[in-house]
Each structure stands twice: as C-alpha cells, then as structure tokens.
Specification:
The chain is of the alpha/beta class. The chain is built from two helices and six strands; from the N terminus they run E-H-E-E-H-E-E-E. Helix 1 runs antiparallel to helix 2. The mean pLDDT is about 95.
Length: about 110
C-alpha cells in the first residue's frame, strides 16, 4: 500500500503526469513487497515552494508512505530513482528535490485496516 504524493513548483502537463505515474509505478518495486498494483500517486503542480530562500528554479517535495517497516537501503535507492525521474520528465535538478519517507503501521483500505 504505497502512496507517493508530489508537490511540484512547475506546471505538469497531462502527458508528463502520465509519464511520472508510469515511472513511479516501476520504481516502487525497489521497495521489497511493493508494486504498482497497489500504488496511489498524487500530483500537486504549480505549488508555491521555496528552497534556499528562492523559487526561480523548479523544485519538488516528494512524500512516500509505505505500509510496513522502514527499509533504509531501499529508500535510499528509491530516492535516486525518484530524482532521476523528476529530472528527466520535469527538468528538476536532484539537489532541488526533497524526498520524505514514512513507514505506516496502520493502513486502512476497503472499509477496514490491515
């Protein structure tokens, strides 16, 4: 049950959104036991972000929530892939992307909790 939510300072075209969703769907498999089949993605483009006191360059804040335990090595590898994806699709430099991870013990779906 992963969820990836992205706050992005630039406008994202429908084609870019589909490409981000597709590539994040592939990348989530870096985390053992996670797959696109259960991935939910959200994109908040045109978001007012400032980094180092500036907002002229494209910026992204990406939140990744996963059901289960933390996996620091997988999270590190996923950060690299997320940075690559956002760089290639949106032109956001890796040093202008923050990625936040949260391992969640209680996750609800379909009227109940796992």
């Amino acid at each position: 049950m992963p969820f990836i939510n992205s706050k992005i300072s630039v406008t994202v075209t429908p084609e870019q959104e589909v490409e981000l969703k597709r590539r994040l769907g592939e990348a989530i498999a870096i985390v053992p036991g996670k797959s696109e089949q259960w991935l939910m993605c959200g994109f908040e483009d045109g978001y007012h972000l400032y980094f180092r006191g500036e907002n002229q360059d494209p910026i992204a804040f990406v939140e990744v929530a996963v059901y289960g335990d933390e996996n620091p090595e997988a999270f590190k590898n996923l950060t690299g892939e997320i940075s690559k994806i956002f760089g290639e699709v949106l032109g956001i430099a890796a040093d202008h992307i923050y990625v936040k991870y949260q391992a969640v013990k209680n996750w609800g779906w379909n009227g109940t909790n796992f």
